[in-house]
Amino acid sequence: MGMDKPYKITCAVIGTLIAILVVVLVLYWAKTFTVTFDTKGGTIYQAVEVRPNDTVLKPADPVMEGYNFKGWFLSTTDEEFNFETKIVDDITIVAKWEPVV
Q1: pTM for this structure?
Q2: CA-CA distance, 46 to 37, in Å (whole number)?
Q3: Nearest CA to 61 among 43, 40, 35?
Q4: Which of 19, 39, 85, 99 gives 20 to 30 Å between its CA and that of 5?
Q5: Quick one: CA dihedral 75, 37, 40, 79, positive or negative?
Q6: 34 — phi, psi (to 5°)?
Q7: Superfamily holding 33-99
């Protein structure tokens, strides 16, 4: 009879730890980053939710009258965006345009 109490306490502690672990995993797996496409006046694209360390699909080239699309660039740099890049934060990808001569 005296063995019941410690056993029940241990089960409660293990059960609580498992519940906490499940919540942490669910929050981690539910986390997403937002990738925003800024076309500077061209075709409008919806922002995309991406899981951590996933890549984002390259959208069809946007269209804007009087301009040629030159590519997608990171808003923070002047570097063309590589769609193989693993997403680890919210980012904005900006369309670059060249006026039609």
Answers
A1: 0.70
A2: 7
A3: 43
A4: 19
A5: positive
A6: -100, 125
A7: Listeria-Bacteroides repeat domain (2.60.40.4270)
